[in-house]
Amino acid sequence: MFLAVRAARRRGVSAVPETQDPHVTQLSSAKFVYDFTEGNKDLKDLLGGKGANLAEMTNLGLPVPPGFVITTEACKVYLDSGSEPAALRAEVSEHLDALEQKMGKKLGQADDPLLVSVRSGAKFSMPGMMDTVLNIGLSDASVSGLAAQAGDERFAWDSYRRLIQMFGKTVLGVDGELFEEALEEAKQAKGIRVDIELDAADLKSLVAHFKDIVAKETGRDFPQEPREQMDLAVRAVFDSWNTDRAKLYRRQERIPGDLGTAVNVCSMVFGNLGPDSGTGVAFTRDPASGHQGVYGDYLQNAQGEDVVAGIRNTVPLADLEQIDKASYDQLMQIMETLETHYKDLCDIEFTIERGKLWMLQTRVGKRTAGAAFRIATQLVDQGLIDEAEALQRVNGAQLAQLMFPRFDLGAKSEMIGRGIAASPGAAVGKAVFDSYTAVKWSRSGEKVILIRRETNPDDLNGMIAAEGILTSRGGKTSHAAVVARGMGKTCVCGAEELEVDTKSRKMTTQDGTVIEEGDVVSIDGSSGKVYIGEVPVVPSPVVEYFEGRMHAGADDADELVKAVHRIMAYADRVRRLRVRANADNAEDAARARRFGAQGIGLCRTEHMFLGERREMVERLILADTESDRDAALSQLLPLQKADFIELFESMDGLPVTVRLLDPPLHEFLPDITELSVRVALAEARKDANENDLRLLQAVHKLHEQNPMLGLRGVRLGLVIPGLFAMQVRAIAEAAAERKNAKGDPRAEIMIPLVGTVQELEIVREEAEQVIAEVEKAHGVNLKLTLGTMIELPRAALTAGQIAESADFFSFGTNDLTQTVWGFSRDDVEASFFTAYLEKGIFGVSPFETIDKDGVGSLVRNAAAAGRATRPDLKLGVCGEHGGDPESVHFFHEAGLDYVSCSPFRIPVARLEAGRAAAESKGSDSR
Q1: What is the per-residue pLDDT across 234-247, written as a single tens digit (0 to 9) for each?
Q2: Which of 76, 77, 343, 916 is nearest to 575 (CA)?
Q3: pTM
Q4: Which positions ≥6 away from 587 have C-beta within 8 Å?
Q5: Which stretches make up the Pyruvate phosphate dikinase AMP/ATP-binding domain (predicted)?
Q6: d(CA 623, CA 660)
Q7: Alpha-carbon span 341 to 61, nearest angstrom
Q8: What span, in angstroms and rounded, lies between the C-alpha atoms of 228 and 889?
């Protein structure tokens, strides 16, 4: 029963006995298989991205090989129960019969076999992460029939060896290296370098060798019955949804783990039938830059995965015009049709079989961050989408990538090679030649560049760990390029002049220079250049634009900057959420304002007492008498006032929320262990210092086992008389002086760690008295507001009461997350978060993206309760979630007025606030 409950929870349905489960009843009568003619692009949840788009192209009348799709629902049943739905086999048989009638041949028949591919297809693109098997239906009995029908014995045996190799690895679990080694041995025996130089006899011998490998490694012969091959391949595709690499990729890309994959069964077309055949990948625009043109790769006499696998270097797609002009012209026309239909960059896979063009896949293509912004504005100019849609085509994570530094091209550097600029960025690190080392060194704090001949899905761990990826083979459509672009990782592919030897862990340049593992290299994903040593970096033009050092309207402005400017301008026009900065000094405040901050949402006053001021706070906390305490406060007052004057000048006319002192005590007291050792050693020498003895006694008295839940925030202000009054006076006097100097200070005073309205009432009463004194002394009306941080569960649960004494709430989601979950952020992320992420307990750290169900529920409820008490209550958030793209959308939906984040995240928050507003408006209109 437990397994049934767990399975039902994964599906999102209630768990009841099988005979009563309405979900099971529904599934038993569900349709699990769809012909390509029955679907469309809007059925991605059911047919997966690949199947839905194959159906859409079929509906558009494009040349798609006939086939059918096994739905994601079938996959979910299989993954939950361990077996396919009872109705699935009959449905597959029905659609297979229809396919055979359409093709005029039967699956695997001896004289003229129908062959099919079995390919995965999740809702969201997961390039290379799940399994594909081509040439299903070939056997000892049918290979000769295929050769006769094609008039090409080599082609038939090449297709058969590919089937055994792919099937053996993906379905039967044979180590793929065994097949690769056998293939390499066959080539070496003939003194050749590429597999297309193997003749029919060589391939026939290789097939026998491959079958021996299968028998030895699995204890069974390679299956000869075509339907068994297909059924086993379908199961393998289902199983591949939960492979380690697939789960890792989903975590990286935040793809839900309960979607399942569809399976596409498609009649085979062959690109390995000779020089008038081939396979390729095309983009309707350059996925690296966004520029319009002819982009892609083509490989003659090749099949299926050869292009993306990077096992042979391709030719540019433009060369197809010379190789096969008719197919080229038709492809260009289809590409234009698809881009206009999808209104976006399309990624296309195609095969040419003896001069006949076939479309095998299309999808909205992955692109770099820069390409995303350029393409969005291009499509607006072409009238294909409007500004609201353009805003949805980009995101904050992409904008953050564009703000990373780039190489200083004027600096002294030594270029050692050049490849294809596959995914932009400036990456520097130590050379490593396998994924294990990349992960190991990265965890030790080293920055690494993963160098491979070509990557494959098993390299995903290393690609994630590395600063960048460099390969000597493959092009813009290779596995390395596609995955790197999806992750926003710097990548240079196809650097052919660099000889990569992964076994010896070295790379050799054309002039003989050897780069050993551990040597520092730099790769430029924007130019494809590879350098030895570390190349200095300079700020990105996008940062210069936000800083005001580059005018987006200038004629010589970077095209990317113009695109960013246009989209940001629209986001600012439509967003409801205002964006403030977390800033503690005038320098950060000025930078934040240049980045578009609309005020300061959090000024942490404890940060003003670091360094030489730390001793003053220590004396205040440890003061024995009222006079000692007053003396310490008198020292601190002018320093605080000067700090606030600078802040109010930097943010003149904009709100500045100042949080009163909120340090855990241990941050301002001597370390108890160090002090104890010092006193003990002094006592042993009989020269103990009286001050140290008294200090140790006081520190022992104030020592806390858990300082984060101890004497801090409002508790400190209530226990140390005059502390908060001093800070309020400093704020008020700074504001008064600024106002008398014709400025426009807009200070907001925030009381931290409030858990009950009584705490806030006491502090507010004292603060209002101080403010009144300052107003009278300076002859001004300051209109200061007082509010509180909502960072404790009790505060959130009693928000309606607390709002009676608060002008505003600011949600401190860092502490709220700690207290809701019972997590100590300083400890848990290093101790067990990795395990929680790997086990799927978290999709992402709750400190990175807000936990909507737990913490988020408290935020929603507190916001509603606060506004019910005080309709004009201002609501904001000042935890690090304020700059997280996904969290910004949540705060928009929760009805908050503003988010506050670090200065460099302000553009990201502005963009996401605009996207949230546009998305909300679009939902309302629907």
Answers
A1: 999 999 999 888 88
A2: 916
A3: 0.80
A4: none
A5: 45-81, 88-313, 321-370
A6: 20
A7: 13
A8: 48
Tokens (6 digits) for 912? 């996401």
d(C-alpha 500, C-alpha 470), whole Å = 10
Residue 48 and residue 874: Cα distance in Å, rounded?
44
Q: What are all long-range contacts of 758-761, with beta carbons under 8 Å and residues at least 24 apart?
A: 759/714, 759/715, 759/718, 760/714, 760/788, 760/802, 760/805, 760/806, 761/805
Ramachandran class of 508: left when φ > 0, alpha when ψ lies in -120 to 50, beta otherwise: beta
Show the tokens assigned to 400.
């953050």
CA distance 86 to 403: 53
Alpha helices in 20-175 (DSSP H): 22-28, 44-59, 72-81, 88-103, 143-150, 153-170
CA dist list (Å): 286 to 290, 372, 376? 5, 10, 13
Residue 444 burial by Cβ neighbours in a 10 Å radius (0-12, 13-18, 19+): exposed
CA gap 539, 547 in Å, rounded: 10
Closest CA to 217 of 161, 245, 179, 183: 179
Q: In angstroms, rounded to a whole number, what is the distance separating the alpha carbons of residues 365 and 295? A: 12
Query: Catalytic amino acids?
Result: 479, 878
DSSP 107: B
Query: CB–CB of 267/242 below 8 Å?
Result: no
The CA-based angle 33-96-207, given to 5 degrees, is: 115
> Tell me: the pLDDT tens digits for 514-564?
999 999 999 988 888 999 999 988 888 898 899 887 777 766 568 899 999
Question: What are the E-state strand segments in 221-345?
Answer: 261-267, 278-285, 292-300, 315-316
Please, which contacts does 605-613 make with residues 24 or more away whose CB atoms are closer than 8 Å?
605/640, 605/643, 605/658, 605/659, 605/660, 605/661, 605/662, 605/727, 606/661, 606/662, 606/663, 606/667, 608/584, 608/639, 608/640, 608/643, 609/636, 609/661, 609/663, 609/668, 613/639
- C-alpha 2/C-alpha 23 separation (Å) is 17
SS3 202: helix
CB 795 within 8 A of CB 752: no
Angle between helices 2-11 and 72-81 (to 10 degrees): 160
If DSSP codes are grouped into helix, strand and coil, which group holds residue 417? strand
- Average pLDDT over every residue of 912-922: 90
User: How distant, in Å, are the alpha carbons of 576, 760, 806, 847 from that of 863?
Assistant: 16, 17, 12, 20
Please report which residue ranges of 703-850 form alpha helices under DSSP H: 714-719, 723-740, 757-778, 793-797, 799-802, 813-821, 825-831, 833-838
Average pLDDT, the chain: 87
In angstroms, the CA 714 to CA 716 distance is: 5
User: Per DSSP, what are the bridge partners of residue 579?
Assistant: 899
Rounded Cα distance, 252 and 250, in Å: 5
Contact 416, 530 (CB under 8 A): yes
Q: Please report, rounded to a whole number, the percentage of residues in the chain having pLDDT higher than 90.
A: 61
Strand 898-901 and strand 655-659: pairing?
A: unpaired
DSSP three-state, residue 582: strand
Burial classification of residue 672, based on how many CB atoms lie within 10 Å of its CB (0-12 exposed, 13-18 middle, 19 or more buried): middle
pLDDT in tens, 592-601: 999 999 999 9
pLDDT band at 749 (very low <50, low <70, confident <90, very high): very high
Strand partners, 750: 659, 787
